[in-house]
Amino acid sequence: MEADVYNKAAEYFKALSHPTRIKIIELLSKKEMCVCQMMAALNLDQSHVSRHLMVLRANKMVKTRREGTIIFYSLTDENIINIIKEVKNIFLVTK
Question: Where's the HTH arsR-type domain (predicted)?
Fold first, then answer.
Protein backbone atom coordinates (compact mmCIF):
# COMPACT_ATOMS: atom_id res chain seq x y z
CA MET A 1 0.00 0.00 0.00
CA GLU A 2 2.69 2.51 0.99
CA ALA A 3 4.83 1.66 -2.04
CA ASP A 4 1.79 2.28 -4.25
CA VAL A 5 1.45 5.81 -2.86
CA TYR A 6 5.11 6.50 -3.59
CA ASN A 7 4.75 5.14 -7.11
CA LYS A 8 1.68 7.28 -7.76
CA ALA A 9 3.43 10.37 -6.38
CA ALA A 10 6.44 9.70 -8.61
CA GLU A 11 4.19 9.34 -11.68
CA TYR A 12 2.41 12.57 -10.75
CA PHE A 13 5.70 14.46 -10.60
CA LYS A 14 6.87 12.87 -13.85
CA ALA A 15 3.79 14.33 -15.51
CA LEU A 16 4.93 17.75 -14.29
CA SER A 17 8.47 17.24 -15.57
CA HIS A 18 8.05 19.22 -18.79
CA PRO A 19 7.87 23.03 -18.89
CA THR A 20 5.05 22.98 -21.46
CA ARG A 21 2.85 20.88 -19.19
CA ILE A 22 3.44 23.32 -16.34
CA LYS A 23 2.50 26.19 -18.67
CA ILE A 24 -0.67 24.34 -19.70
CA ILE A 25 -1.64 23.87 -16.07
CA GLU A 26 -1.05 27.56 -15.39
CA LEU A 27 -3.23 28.49 -18.38
CA LEU A 28 -5.99 26.16 -17.22
CA SER A 29 -5.85 27.59 -13.70
CA LYS A 30 -7.26 30.81 -15.17
CA LYS A 31 -10.03 29.30 -17.33
CA GLU A 32 -11.00 26.24 -19.31
CA MET A 33 -9.59 26.23 -22.82
CA CYS A 34 -9.72 24.30 -26.05
CA VAL A 35 -6.60 23.07 -27.83
CA CYS A 36 -6.75 25.91 -30.36
CA GLN A 37 -6.64 28.50 -27.55
CA MET A 38 -3.69 26.74 -25.92
CA MET A 39 -1.91 26.55 -29.28
CA ALA A 40 -2.16 30.33 -29.64
CA ALA A 41 -1.13 31.05 -26.05
CA LEU A 42 1.85 28.68 -26.15
CA ASN A 43 2.82 29.25 -29.80
CA LEU A 44 2.88 25.48 -30.40
CA ASP A 45 1.27 23.27 -33.01
CA GLN A 46 -1.69 21.03 -32.32
CA SER A 47 0.28 17.80 -32.07
CA HIS A 48 2.57 19.16 -29.35
CA VAL A 49 -0.29 20.53 -27.26
CA SER A 50 -2.32 17.33 -27.68
CA ARG A 51 0.64 15.15 -26.68
CA HIS A 52 1.13 17.10 -23.46
CA LEU A 53 -2.59 17.07 -22.71
CA MET A 54 -2.59 13.29 -23.14
CA VAL A 55 0.02 12.97 -20.37
CA LEU A 56 -1.93 15.32 -18.10
CA ARG A 57 -5.17 13.42 -18.75
CA ALA A 58 -3.51 10.05 -18.11
CA ASN A 59 -2.47 11.37 -14.70
CA LYS A 60 -5.94 12.78 -14.02
CA MET A 61 -4.68 16.36 -13.82
CA VAL A 62 -7.05 17.66 -16.49
CA LYS A 63 -10.57 16.75 -17.51
CA THR A 64 -12.56 17.43 -20.65
CA ARG A 65 -15.95 18.81 -21.56
CA ARG A 66 -17.38 18.59 -25.06
CA GLU A 67 -19.39 21.40 -26.60
CA GLY A 68 -20.40 20.34 -30.10
CA THR A 69 -17.18 19.47 -31.88
CA ILE A 70 -14.94 21.43 -29.49
CA ILE A 71 -13.34 19.80 -26.45
CA PHE A 72 -12.58 22.08 -23.53
CA TYR A 73 -9.96 21.24 -20.92
CA SER A 74 -9.91 22.23 -17.26
CA LEU A 75 -8.04 21.21 -14.12
CA THR A 76 -9.43 18.32 -12.11
CA ASP A 77 -7.99 19.72 -8.89
CA GLU A 78 -7.07 23.37 -8.39
CA ASN A 79 -4.49 22.38 -5.73
CA ILE A 80 -2.04 21.44 -8.46
CA ILE A 81 -1.38 25.12 -9.09
CA ASN A 82 -0.35 25.51 -5.44
CA ILE A 83 2.24 22.75 -5.88
CA ILE A 84 3.65 24.50 -8.94
CA LYS A 85 3.73 27.88 -7.16
CA GLU A 86 5.59 26.40 -4.19
CA VAL A 87 8.21 24.76 -6.39
CA LYS A 88 8.66 27.97 -8.39
CA ASN A 89 9.06 29.89 -5.10
CA ILE A 90 11.94 27.62 -4.11
CA PHE A 91 13.87 28.78 -7.15
CA LEU A 92 12.90 32.42 -6.75
CA VAL A 93 14.13 32.45 -3.12
CA THR A 94 17.44 30.75 -3.90
CA LYS A 95 18.46 33.26 -6.58
Answer: 1-95
